[in-house]
Amino acid sequence: MNDSAAGRAAQLRAQIDQANIRYYVHDDPTISDVQYDQLLRELEALEQQHPELVTPDSPTQRVGAEPQSELATVAHRAPMLSLANAMDDGELRAFDGRVKKELGIEGPVDYLCEPKLDGLAVELIYEQGRFVQGSTRGDGTTGEDITANLRTIRAIPLTLTGDVAPPALLELRGEVFITREGFAQLNRQRAEAGQPLFANPRNSAAGSVRQLDPKVTAGRPLRIYCYGYGLVDGHAFSTQEQFLKTLPQWGLPVNPEYRLCRGIDEAVEFYQELETRRDRLPYDIDGLVVKVNDLGQQTRLGQRSRSPRWAIAGKFQAQQATTIVEDIQASVGRTGALTPVAHLRPVNVGGVTVSRATLHNQDEIDRKDVRVGDTVLVQRAGEVIPEVVQVITEKRPPHAKPYHLPNTCPICGHEVYRPPDEVVARCLNLACPAQVRGRFEHFISKGAMNIDGLGEKIVERLIASGKIKTVADLYRLTFDDLATLEIERTVGRMETEAGQSKKMVALGDKVATKLLAAIDASRQTTFARFIYALGIRNVGEHLSRVLERACQGDLERLLAADTEELEAIHEVGATVAQGLVRFTGDQSNRAVIRDLLALGVQLEAVEAPAKGAGLSGKTFVFTGNLEQMTRREARELVEARGGRAATSISSRTDYVVAGPGAGSKLAKAEELGVAVLSEGEFLEMVK
Ligand code: D41
Q1: Which of 100, 101, 116, 687 is catalytic?
Q2: pLDDT digits (tens, 9 = 90+) for 323-343
Q3: Which residues of the chain have pLDDT under 70?
Q4: Which homologous superfamily does the CATH classification assign to the domain defined by 433-522?
Q5: What is the pTM of this model?
Q6: Whole-angstrom Cα distance, residue 355 to residue 165?
Q7: Which CATH number describes the domain made up of 525-603?
Q8: 291 is catalytic
């Protein structure tokens, strides 16, 4: 009995360790989180029954140590060197020049290039393949003992495994970091718990590793990639590349994004490529580390006082900078959402001048306590709108007052409403100029009234010339209105200066005829399209069809419904019901609806969903690329048969239809035991 318990415990440990390696080292998970937790729980139960089976490197023993009162200091046996910086291509080439001169060679040098992770540098010491000590880099000579904290990181193996025997002593250097997703999740949890937020993934990683209580560290989504070594006894490497390829064989994680570059040209090319790709990596990097690949050459190059002469960090443009908030103003988006925007003293962030940054919403302002006059840290990444990360409170001027979003729309003066359990405040006025353009575009779009050919430019000119103020005005447009409408056309050659090449041109008879026909055709529509076209908060295409069925296509019923009646409809919750009643209760909204109907918009009678078609009450999720239909068509097929199309998978999902390229949703479906259909099988089913 005890024998088999020991056998099972060993098997479970091996499975858990292997699962960690598949996940953290090979980025190729073989079991789900649920299965992982099951294995861990089984092992815990087994060890509880047989305490003599507990080993120090059991996965159950990652969190064990008691909280400490302070972190002990440790001396690094081999100093942890730092990296010199190169700020651009030229400085990288200058580095290459020095390397060649020192080595006395003329041909290209092989460089092993690694992304420079923005985390916390640490040392891991393995003796006889066992993790015995971990420390921070500190000043490079002495750091802090964080062994108990590092043990909680699942990416760090407690014992080295594999076919290649691990060395008697292996001092590893690596970077502990948190992925952007892990960071976002951590801050979400902290916001819910009312705790202060971390400013960026780097700070959250550093803060998490230097905890006094390992249990706190255990709850943080920390990762590690190894990139260097200190003392090694019992194994010899000949190149950095060979070193990086060996570590995973022992179960140690290495960033797979490294590249061996033959000569500095290739390294510079990688440096530039990586900078354009940095936002698409799942973690923050701040440069590229260029290392002479050959360890013999490294030895010949040696080191300066604190950094090796054989490596350099090619830095990227900073994505954060500090500046002053000169004003805060609310901007109104196409759905009426009021977004507070910080107007900044212009500052260069990553090569781009930034003078505005989003403050997201009132809750975010409150949490960060951003005030006019504050000095703030701003951040931009790729195409994303710059945002204020944090306030440098020490620099706050004495009379700065907290900021509150206005109670009325800054554009039209209409009432602003923020539902009790939402973070976004909105202008409720359908006729608000700031919203009009966005609403027009939505109203016209394919899934809504589907007015073909009425492009953005034309809509913009129609609004600007005062010909359309509400969506109803579209149906008042005359042939002359359209034929004489002047829009900007670019004429002449591409090279001509902007302004000189633009000309105002009337739309003309042909276009006007076509547009009028398209507008006229859109008069014949359905209840669902009509409701969707109005652009009511939280009322998407699916919900519009739900309402159509519930009201049996009778618009008057919807206009008369109160929240109670609406909430009685399956799939309509309190938020949607309240939003609807606010919308239908607004006099200007009602006027627009009346106008539309008076101008000939007709809602086609609804067909009852074909009985016996069999999908009633069934929920479908589509994932991957569909080849024989669009997502919209797929959804319509399901809904026409009384089913429901959802976007996320839960235990209530009945079928997942997966096309090529289906990713995490497919994995989740399998994990939850949801039936998976191919596109062909789905079509067979609905036929
Ligand atoms: O990704 C990194 N942050 C990184 C840091 C890296 N990929 N390689 C590094 N290599 C070194 C040497 C060449 C000195 C072994 C480093 C660092 N050092 C480093 N990180 C913090 C200080 C030094």
Answers
A1: 116
A2: 999 999 999 987 889 999 999
A3: 1-2, 382-383, 491-501, 606-613
A4: 5' to 3' exonuclease, C-terminal subdomain (1.10.150.20)
A5: 0.64
A6: 57
A7: 1.10.150.20
A8: no
Q: What is the pLDDT of residues 122-172, one digit of tens each?
A: 999 999 999 999 999 999 999 999 999 999 999 999 999 888 899 999 999
Q: Give the DSSP H/E element, type plus range, for residue 172.
A: strand 169-178
Domain parsing of the chain, residue ranges? 3-61, 85-315, 320-427, 433-522, 525-603, 619-686
Cβ(116) to ligand 1 under 6 A? Answer: yes
CA distances from 460 to 142, 283, 433, 439, 554 (A): 64, 40, 11, 12, 33
pLDDT of residue 126: 98
Residues 6+ apart with CB under 8 A from 497: none
Token pair, residue 511, equals 């276009």
pLDDT for 493 equals: 53
Nearest CA to ligand 1 atom 8: 227
Q: State both tokens at 475.
A: 């149906």
Give distance in angstroms: CA of 16 to centre of ligand 1. Answer: 30
Q: How far is the CA of 464 from the centre of ligand 1 (A)?
A: 57
| CB of residue 531 inside a 6 A radius of ligand 1 | no
- Fold of the domain spanning 3-61: Helix Hairpins (1.10.287)
Q: How far apart are CA 244 and CA 265, in angstroms?
A: 22
Element (H, E) at 205: helix 201-209
State how far the Cα of 579 lies from the Cα of 592, in Å rounded to an integer: 17
Domain 320-427 has CATH 3.30.70.100: no
Q: Do domains 3-61 and 320-427 have the same CATH topology?
A: no
Backbone angles phi, psi at 462, to 5 degrees: -65, -40
pLDDT digits (tens, 9 = 90+) for 552-598: 889 999 999 999 999 988 889 898 999 999 999 999 899 999 999 99
Q: How far is residue 365's CA from residue 390's CA, in Å, rounded to a whole number?
A: 10
In whole angstroms, give the CA distance from residue 167 to residue 135.
Answer: 20
Q: Angle 456-464/433-444 helices, nearest 10 degrees?
A: 140
Q: Is 417 exposed, middle or buried (0-12, 13-18, 19+ CB in 10 A)?
A: middle
How far, in Å, is the centroid of ligand 1 from the Cα of 258? 13
User: Is 118 touching ligand 1 by the criterion CB < 6 Å?
Assistant: no
Position 459 scores a pLDDT of 92
Spatial distance between the Cα atoms of 374 and 372, rounded to a whole number of angstroms: 6
Three-state DSSP class for 200? coil
Q: What is the mean pLDDT of the chain?
A: 91
- pLDDT at residue 500 in the model: 53
409 lines ligand 1 (CB under 6 A): no
- The CATH number of the structural domain formed by 85-315 is 3.30.470.30
The two three-digit tokens of residue 557, written as one number: 């019923």
82 lines ligand 1 (CB under 6 A): yes
Task: Classify domain 619-686 at the CATH superfamily level.
Answer: BRCT domain (3.40.50.10190)
Work out the end-to-end distance of the chain between its first and last CA atoms, rounded to an integer number of angstroms.
Answer: 57
Cα separation of 6 and 415, whole Å? Answer: 70
Q: How far apart are CA 109 and CA 106, in angstroms?
A: 9
What is d(CA 251, CA 157) in angstroms, rounded to the nearest whole number?
7
For ligand 1, atom 15, which residue shows the shortest CA distance? 228
